[in-house]
Amino acid sequence: MNYTVHKAFQKDKQVLTSYIENYETSGEDFGNQDRNSLKLYNLNGLTINVKSFKIPNLVNQIAYRFFRKSKAQRSFEYANRLLHLGIGTPKPIAFYEYKTPFLFKKSYYISEHLPYDLTYRELTFNLTMANHEAILRAFTRFTFGLHKAGVNFLDHSPGNTLIQLNGGAYKFYLVDLNRMEFGDMDFETRIKNFARLTTHKSMVEIMSDEYAKLGGYDYNRVFHLMWEETEAFQNRFHRKRRIKNKVFFWRKK
User: Fold this and answer.
1) Residue 99 phi, psi dihedral angles, 5° rounding
2) Model's pTM, two decimal places?
3) What is the pLDDT of residues 30-40, one digit of tens each?
4) Cα gap 105→110, rounded to integer Å
5) Name one GO molecular function term (predicted).
């Protein structure tokens, strides 16, 4: 087992390692994870979460063993980079990896468990929520700040932004960090980054309006591209789902 622990938590290495070694029989299950699992632990009065990434397929076991950083390592490094840029994300604590001489197996990412009031997803479910437009515009300003800092969050999707309301002083925190790119972003890349967030045209209109004001862009140009990318993503998503359902149907036969 290999691991890296943040310097602020070096004194807790033994306890953290015991959480990983006993992960299957310890901790409190948290949330629903399609492919991975997440558990809560108490570390000297601090609630932390441990995300367990499933064992990758054989090709990726080789890739992660020799050529690519694991999801856990990328999550840890990207969290540190975001915090350095002043961008909200739960504090990174450690990552652990299990490897054989030729294959990569399981990995774990440990971070602070951050209390929050809602995620972006709730905005898509409840369009009549109190201060809905104000929160959405604040989220758009947060995203503009990401882009200005050169952060392209490739998993910018409804469940991956935690929101603290703070009486109207909204704060946003990114989670599920293992897919990011860093560098200058052109207009098309910036607007495409909104494609996975909602199917509601009214929300796209508000985000387009706010983003256009922030960037000094023409509103119609922003809206048409944002809505076009949103529809394109939805079409790809539903096409993949139909294919998966057909494969599942034929396997059952």
Assistant:
1) -135, 150
2) 0.90
3) 865 566 889 99
4) 17
5) kinase activity
